Amino acid sequence: MSARFVCFLLLCTSLFAQQSQPSLTIYNQDFAVVRQDLPLDLKSGENQFNMNDITMHVEPDSVILRDPSGKHSLQVLEQNYRADPVSQMSLLSLYEGRTIDFELPDHSTIKGKVIRSGYVRPDYFNPNNYGVGAEEPIIEVAGQLRFGLPGTPVFPDLTAETILKPRMEWLLATDKPGKFPAEFSYITGGMSWQADYNIVAPEKGDVVDIVGWVTIDNRTGKAFENAHIKLMAGDVNKIQPNAMNGVLARKVAMELAAPMAPAVTEKAFDEYHLYTLERATTLRDRETKQVEFIHASSVASKQLYVYDGAKIDFNRYGGWNWENIRNDHSYGTESNPKIWVMREFVNSQANHMGMPLPKGRVRFYRRNDDGQMEFTGENMIDHTPKDETVRIYTGNSFDLTGERRRTNYTVDNKQDAATETFEIKVRNHKKEPVEIRVVEHLYRGKNWTVAANSDKYMKKDSQTIEFPVTVQPDGEKVITYTARYTW
Question: Could you tell me if residue 141 is inside a domain?
Fold first, then answer.
C-alpha cells in the first residue's frame, strides 16, 4: 500500500470523524442547541427508529431531523420522547400487584407483594420538583403490610416498559431507500455558560490587567465527546419552559467559518454575539469546564469615588406620587455616610480591549507591597458592546465619609412652589487628595431650578446633578445648594 494512499485514507477518516462530531451552541439562559449526525438506513415507506444518544432535558417539539443533502424526503410521522430511565423505584412501580424476592442483609431472601411502590415520575424539565410527591412504599410480607422495603428488591427481569437511557422513538417515512447521515438537532435544557472576569491592579496606579473566562456547565445527563462549542451572548427571547424553537435552531445551525486564532473568537450574529471555542473539547455530564477568552494587559482605568447621600426607604415610599412627596417634610432627609468606590475603563482596541463583553461577574484584585494579590471587591456587568465604558461598583471606601443634612424646607401653596436647601460634607482621611463626585437627586417634583449653589455642578439627567469636588488630605469639603420646585 503506497504512502500516498495511506495519507488519503487517514484524511478521509479525519474528515468523517469531524463530520460525526456533535456541535453545541450554548446560551447564557440555561439552554443549548445540539446538532449531530445520525446515520440512517431506511427502506422506502414507513420505518421505526429509536435514538438513545440524547439528553435528559430535550424539548421534543424543537426537534429537527432532515437529510442535509436533500436527496431523501424525510418525514417524522410520529415521535415519542421517553425520559424516565429505569431505577430501583421506577422498576418497583412496574411490579405493583406482583410478588418478588427481597434480599436481606444476611443474603437470605423473603417474598413480598408490592402493594404500592411510592414512585412518582420526576419532572426533568424542573429539577426543583424532582421526586416531589413520592410516598413510602407498602409491601405485604407473610400476610402483613409494612411501610418501607423489607430488603433490596430482586427483580426477575426488566419489563418491556423499561429503558436504560432517555430515548427518542420515531416513526419515519421516506420516498426511497438508502443509507445517509441525517442532520439531527434539538434544544435542550440543563446547559449553561457564564463569563467571569478578573481585574488585577498594581500596588500603585490604575493600569490594570484583565483576564476573562467562560465557564460551561453541563447538567443534561449526557456527555458530548470531542464537541465543537459555540457560546451565544445576548438577551434571546425564549418562552419557558417549552417552546417551538425550530426557527431558532435552524438559525444557530448555520456553520460560521472562523480562522485559526485564540482559544475563543467572537463575531456578531443576528442581534447577538457568538463566541466560538477554536478547539473541539469533551464536555462530560455534570462537568464544569473553563476556557480563557480574554487576556488584556496595560488597560487604562480610573478609580472613582461617588457620594450619593440621600438614603430613601423605598419600602415605605414605594408608589408615592409627586403630591405625597412634596407634602412629606421628612422625605429624603436620612443621610447615607458611605462613599462608593467605582472602577471604570473603556472597552476599546486603543485600550487593549475591544471585544464585546458578555455579562458576568467581575472580581477585583490589587497587588500588595509584598507582591501578593488581595481581593478588593466584585460585582456584575451586563452585556457590553465594544467602545462602551464599563463602570462597576466595587465597595465602600474606608477612609472617605459623607454627611448630608437639610437646612431649610418651605412650601408655598399659593405660588405652587417649594424650596429646599441642603448642606453636604465629604471628608478625606487619606494621605493624598481625592476627587469625589457628589450626586444629588432633585426628587421633590418634575420642574426644578437650582436657586443657589456653593460649587459648580453638572446636570446628569432630568432629575440628577453632580458636584465634582477635590478634598485635600485629612480635609473636609462643604457643599450647599438650594433647589426650587414649581408645579
Answer: yes
